[in-house]
Design brief:
The protein has 22 helices and 16 strands. A three-stranded antiparallel sheet has the order 3-15-6. α2 runs antiparallel to α15, α17 runs parallel beside α18 and α18 packs across α19. The N terminus is likely disordered.
Length: about 550
């Protein structure tokens, strides 16, 4: 249900609140096969305790500004926790509650350092490794084997098992990955009304993109007197909206991203190499430097976040932007004014610099993990939570709507689903095959999953004249971003990282320094403050400062996990 915001300050508050509430993207399961009624019954029966005994587990929680509690409810007392106790015999208590994600990170760091962790909690890959090394968390292999239902086991293997492998160390399952669909593609979004106005072709190649960017700059189709070619922001790893990653992929260059913080590719000999130190990255940086020199890039981009840079998009100064499949929801701020459409946008696959199709880089999907403390007395309870979440999130009934909407079971944009303490998302997605056809044919019966039904209904509101749903049509409709994914899969246009292990020892020690150096050099090159040849010096320094050792450690892991 939740938009996969890999960097959260992306949408306007009004938009993001409504979109998160309305199943915009992928923290919730987007598109997994729905269990049959009998499967649902068997899953519930399999996890319902034989006795009346209720199992208690403690956890820690991260506050969210978009979670609104019903009167008299809180993190400690709410209808979602009550439903888990009633339905599957698990009483959830909170050891502590953080105000936001930053406070969560700080408090969790202290909790790990002081060996004062709850029965289960959500951690990142680095923390998972720390907890294993400190012998603080449980090998849950046997617990999972015994208490996870067949439906749960099938659901968790839908990607072929990669995300579960990422939580497995030495043959031991040490965590439950917070799974998600890995096909989180980059696309190019273009002001099609400006293409028509300037009689420009749709972008099929990188040269087409350059031609369009120069025309948007020099001819100023928005009439603002302050036009640029393309939008970028200060976060080198941004993969949501206004990021560099889609552009770099067009040069067959691969950057670490917010979705995939550690991107490694096969060098063609069976060895793994770091994406951002390859020669193709130098080509991409040279192209960006040339664009900057021509004034095609906002000269202040390096001090602007996505929202600030997007003001130029909303204000008709820029008509080209790279980003994820949900970017139309972001663009809607400028495209729809007072109920009228004032900007037209189209979505296109990433243009390539040569005859080889560009590949959109992707991670494995899951990047956080639920771990169980060695001190936990009731690890079975964690499996009950996992089983129940998969059932209720993929086969909604009137009764189990409480897990999504609260006790009144009615959507009121409160985001009650955030209260579920253990959530896993779909590892697969066929929205691109289903939704464009359903919307074009106006056939609601083609939409099978909860997510598809919701998206279909929203897109059809746009078809029937509700401009507020413009964004959904350009995500899910016949020419929307989802419609491009099936051909991308068919044509092998995804470059998935080959490394999905825990951070290696040298990564933990050196990555922050290496990434800071990378960003400094890349920005200086793009902004024409140094020669593009500075990239070669950076690569040499990267190798000396720990890159070579990291590469060795990654390949040692790869030799064991191919």
């Amino acid at each position: 249900m939740k938009m996969k915001l890999r960097g959260k300050g992306v949408l306007t508050t009004a938009l993001i609140t409504s979109l998160i509430a309305a199943t915009a993207c992928s923290s919730k399961t987007e598109n997994s096969p729905q269990p049959s009624a009998s499967a649902t019954a068997s899953a519930t029966a399999a996890q319902t305790p034989d006795s009346k005994k209720v199992l208690e587990v403690s956890t820690i929680r991260e506050g969210d500004p978009y979670l609104k509690f019903d009167a008299g409810e809180s993190f400690d007392k709410n209808s979602v926790y009550e439903a888990y106790e009633k339905d599957v015999g698990v009483k959830i208590t909170n050891q502590w509650i953080a105000a936001d994600s930053n406070q969560y990170k700080e408090k969790l760091k202290i909790a790990i350092a002081s060996n004062d962790i709850p029965d289960f909690m959500l951690v990142d890959a680095t923390q998972l490794q720390q907890l294993i090394e400190a012998d603080m968390i449980m090998d849950i292999t046997s617990v999972y084997d015994k208490f996870a239902t067949p439906e749960t086991k099938k659901f968790m293997q839908a990607d072929g098992g990669t995300q579960m492998k990422s939580a497995t160390f030495g043959g031991k399952l040490m965590a439950i990955p917070s799974t998600s669909n890995p096909y989180y593609a980059q696309f190019l979004y273009v002001r099609t009304d400006w293409l028509k106005k300037l009689n420009l072709p749709e972008p099929k190649t990188m040269q087409d993109l350059m031609t369009i960017a120069e025309a948007f700059k020099t001819k100023d189709p928005g009439g603002t007197g302050r036009a640029y070619g393309i939008a970028f922001n200060k976060d080198m790893k941004e993969d949501g909206a206004t990021g560099f990653i889609g552009f770099m992929n067009g040069y067959h260059a691969y950057m670490d991203s917010n979705a995939d913080s550690n991107h490694w590719i096969d060098d063609g000999t069976g060895k793994l190499v770091k994406g951002y130190v390859q020669p193709q990255m130098k080509e991409a940086l040279k192209a960006l430097q040339d664009m900057f020199k021509k004034g095609l890039i906002d000269p202040e981009f390096a001090v602007k976040d996505t929202q600030k840079e997007s003001e130029l998009i909303f204000g008709n100064n820029i008509g080209l932007v790279y980003g994820a499949e949900w970017v139309p929801a972001h663009l809607a701020t400028g495209a729809i004014k007072d109920g009228k459409q004032v900007q037209e946008w189209g979505v296109y696959p990433i243009p390539s610099v040569d005859n080889n199709p560009a590949k959109a880089q992707i991670g494995i999907g899951g990047d956080r993990y639920y771990v169980v403390s060695k001190k936990a007395k009731n690890p079975e309870a964690v499996m009950r939570l996992l089983n129940q979440w998969i059932v209720v999130d993929n086969n909604q009934t009137e009764d189990n709507k409480v897990y999504e909407y609260g006790k009144d079971r009615v959507e009121k944009k409160s985001n009650y689903w955030l209260l579920n303490p253990l959530r896993v998302g779909s590892l697969s997605n066929n929205n691109g095959e289903v939704l464009p056809k359903a919307i074009a044919a106006k056939d609601a019966s083609l939409a099978k999953t909860k997510d598809q039904k919701t998206r279909y209904e929203r897109a059809m509101k746009y078809v029937n004249g509700d401009t507020s749903m413009w964004w959904e049509y350009w995500i899910s409709g016949p020419k929307g971003s989802y419609s491009l994914i099936p051909d991308m899969k068919k044509n092998n246009q995804f470059e998935q990282t080959k490394f999905y292990g825990a951070p290696t020892p040298t990564m933990v020690e050196k990555n922050a320094i290496l990434e800071k150096k990378r960003d400094e050099v890349f920005f200086k090159i793009i902004m024409n403050q140094v020669s593009v040849d500075e990239f070669d010096k950076f690569v040499a320094d990267w190798k000396k400062l720990g890159g070579d050792q990291i590469t060795k450690e990654v390949n040692d892991w790869y030799a064991k996990n191919k």
